[in-house]
Amino acid sequence: MSKANLYRPNVAMIIVSNKYPEEKEIFIAQRNDLIDVWQFPQGGIDEGEKLKEAMFRELKEEIGTDKAKIIAEYPHWISYDFPKKIAKTMKPFKGQMQRYFLVKLKKSAIINLATHTPEFMDYKFVGVDEILDMTAYFKKDVYKKVIKYFKKEGLL
Q1: Contact 16, 105 (CB under 8 A)
Q2: From CA 85, how far away is CA 82, in angstroms rounded?
Q3: By CB neighbour count within 10 A (0-12 exposed, 13-18 middle, 19+ buried), where does 87 fall?
Q4: I need a surface site. Which of 62, 82, 132, 156 has the fewest CB within 10 A?
Q5: 4-39: per-residue pLDDT in tens?
Q6: How crowded is residue 156: how many other Cβ atoms within 10 Å of its Cβ?
Q7: Count of domains observed in the chain
């Protein structure tokens, strides 16, 4: 397996509420399989699937709605390694290679975590500066880079 194939292709979403840009609250969800681990929705890209198709599919699968508008896309792939405990369950992958989207929920969006295969038990909208205190240690560097980029662009 080549080095590139060691990282699972993935999309991730930083979701702002429909009050954006007046209020820059960001959606964060608590995983139902890890205690006190909060994260942005994310998921794998299916074979032959385009990035935006995967993003909208993952929104629907993870938070029960795809009623969102893309505001921006992080311009590069960004990766992280799984911790050893998680890596064992994600073989043959060493980590994830992600493309991030900044999306705004439409007023008609209704979040429903009770999806076909629920990944989250709770969610909330928090300020940009609160995110890093709530997230898993192995994702912090990626979250910092992406948030810094969107802040620099004047979007967060």
Answers
A1: yes
A2: 8
A3: middle
A4: 132
A5: 679 999 999 999 999 999 999 999 999 998 778 899
A6: 23
A7: 1
